[in-house]
Design a protein that fits this description.
This protein is α+β, with helices and mostly antiparallel strands. Helices cover 47% and strands 18% of the residues. The protein contains 15 helices and 15 strands. Strands 1, 3, 7, 9, 10 and 12 form a six-stranded antiparallel sheet that branches. A hairpin with a 2-residue loop joins strand 9 and strand 10.
């Protein structure tokens, strides 16, 4: 029943994700803000190398007549890592655009303030932003050159020209009359204050249209990252200062189109190695899956259904990474993914997540190893964990495919964190139940040696799960916010490597072997009950193809003969439940 419900949930989830795919354009963002009352909106976060271009177009910004005095605008700041934004942390109750940009000291930042009365956008830079290459639109951005050629040509022509103008004491004349571009000098004579003065003279045209009782404003600009000193992680925010007032809320309605590019590559600086990383990990998981199949085919020991399920999981993981690599490749070259490959990735990702959680819970409960029928509490756990895992995978995909400025983005992020923690905590319960049962059985049923070996294995598996959860949920997040922007791919590499190590260790611990603690049947297991020699002893056994219940009627025969001549008899459901109940009551939990 639990597997059937999981398949239904997965199919529904895939259908839901497909609906989201058609509206997402990856690194070519198109965000429609409707009836939004947020104070600020994160529009984009992107790591730029030298030669990168940020193109922003704000259109259809609706304003009621009589409200033109309200302050709206954008802020663009540059950091070196994906940590908390220092400006937002210090401006939770006050609009940052109301402060002079020269008072900002937490790093380079640029303000784009919309003057709705004068129909212009006033640009101002902090003193930490020594050089800015700002253009009215992307068509005015110079052709992308190599870093050395771009810097040399810029130094030889435009910057030298501006330095001469600066010596004459007329810096204001160095700004283009149409506001097309401004380049602050980067020579020895230039300091942060001079660059801020030049930047503060720049304005961008603000187009306005009158429709009924509303005014619609539009403007666009492009930022060119010309030198290595300008590289960094750029964060673009939209600010609505009226919404900071406690008594009023202003309804935001506008469209924004953003295109980010790194010298022909649409991936952020920290994402460029990801296609190759996903492909290599896919090959590694595929080869490991083939090796697991080889072990199962050559094994002369009993094989169980869980062994085949573990193999299926490895191949699903390989397929998921392969489709993920192809998806990122198309984003890299086109700025958006191909829907067919994206849907294949979503399907395999959802199936992989469901199979992973099922496998971990089944191993934790000891299914087929210790017992062959799940208890009621195990079934209830499946009915809780599987829907949670499916919901976690759905929220993860929606977050990855949604724009950061969507109203639902933060909601789905919170859902993912909560559901993921619940799911990770739930998969530990069956292991804890098994450990507790083995601890109790070790001192009561006379099989201390075997139970202690099983207990040791369960404890190792428990530690493996805890380390895997701790590393992939906490350490990875700490790594992501501390490394430099161009090394953001390291957190994904360590996450995939941790998953691979967890798979390998789990396969090694529960591989089919003859002396496995789960498979060992000692004479003491047959002699733990006091009674006559001709008393019947029921033993639950497992064949390689199915489960059945056998009855051994002669206790005096040797162990090897007992296992050889054990006869399997067919019984109806009522007899089968009676045998299981009798075995559980006598602590035959093997």
């Amino acid at each position: 029943m639990c597997w059937a419900s999981a398949r239904k949930l997965s199919a529904l989830s895939v259908f839901t994700i497909v609906l989201f795919v058609t509206a997402v354009h990856a690194r070519r963002h198109h965000l429609e803000v409707r009836d939004d009352f947020r104070r600020y909106i994160l529009l984009s976060t992107f790591g730029f190398y030298a030669g990168g271009v940020l193109d922003v177009q704000v259109s259809q910004f609706r304003v009621d007549h009589g409200t033109e005095s309200n302050l709206f605008g954008l802020s663009l700041d540059k950091t070196m890592s994906d940590s908390m934004n220092p400006y937002l942390d210090s401006h939770q109750d006050k609009c940052i655009l109301t402060e002079p940009v020269t008072a900002q000291s937490n790093g380079p930042i640029v303000f784009f303030k919309m003057d709705l009365n004068q129909n212009v956008v006033n640009v101002s830079c902090s003193k930490d932003w020594h050089n800015i290459h700002l253009y009215k639109d992307r068509s005015r951005v110079p052709a992308l050159r190599s870093k050395r050629e771009s810097f040399a040509k810029m130094s030889d022509s435009k910057l030298v020209y501006m330095q001469r103008r600066r010596r004459r004491g007329i810096l204001e004349d160095s700004i283009a009359a149409d506001g097309s571009s401004v380049d602050a000098p980067v020579g020895r004579e230039t300091d942060g204050e001079s660059a801020a003065i030049i930047c503060s003279k720049l304005t961008l045209p603000l187009e306005v249209k009158h429709v009924d009782v509303f005014k619609y404003y539009s403007f666009n600009f492009a930022i060119y990252v010309a030198t290595k000193q300008e590289e960094g992680l750029y964060n673009l925010y939209f600010h609505s200062c009226p919404n900071y007032a406690p008594s009023t809320l202003y309804e935001l309605n506008f469209d924004v189109d953003i295109e980010e590019k790194n010298s022909g590559n649409y991936l952020s600086a920290g994402e460029m190695p990801l296609p190759a990383l996903y492909f290599m990990m896919s090959v590694l998981f595929f080869l490991s899956g083939l090796f697991w199949v080889f072990i199962l085919r050559k094994s002369k020991h009993p094989l169980f259904k869980i062994h085949y399920l573990m193999g299926v999981l490895v191949f699903l993981k390989s397929l998921s990474l392969m489709f993920h690599a192809i998806n990122y490749h198309f984003i890299e070259v086109q700025g958006q993914h191909v829907e067919a490959w994206a849907i294949l990735y979503y399907i395999t990702h959802l199936l992989k997540g469901a199979v992973l959680i099922i496998t971990i819970v089944l191993i934790g409960t000891g299914w087929t190893f210790i017992k062959h029928i799940l208890a009621d509490k195990d079934k209830k756990l499946f009915m809780i964990v599987i829907p949670l895992q499916v919901l976690a995978n759905v929220s993860e995909i929606i977050i990855a495919e949604s724009d950061e400025g969507d109203k639902e983005y933060n909601t789905w992020t919170d859902i993912l964190m909560l559901v993921d923690l619940l799911c990770c905590g739930a998969i530990l319960f069956p292991v804890v139940w098994s450990i507790r049962h083995l601890q109790e059985a070790a001192g009561t049923d006379g099989k201390a040696a075997i139970n202690l070996r099983k207990l040791k294995l369960f404890r190792q598996f428990y530690i493996m799960i805890v380390c895997y959860i701790y590393f992939t949920r906490i350490i990875i997040i700490l790594l992501k916010i501390t490394v430099a922007f161009q090394y953001a791919w390291l957190d994904e590499m360590f996450k995939q490597m941790a998953t691979y190590v967890f798979f390998v260790l789990t396969g090694y611990k529960f591989r089919p072997v003859s002396q496995h603690p789960y498979f060992s049947v000692q004479d003491e297991e047959l002699d733990d009950d006091d009674g006559d020699d001709d008393e019947e002893v029921e033993i639950l056994t497992q064949s390689s193809l199915g489960e059945s219940i056998g009855k051994v009627t002669n206790r005096a025969q040797p162990l090897s003969a007992a296992m050889t001549v054990a006869t399997f008899v067919e019984s109806h459901d009522e007899e089968r439940e009676n045998l299981i109940s009798k075995r559980e009551s006598s602590h035959e939990y093997d």
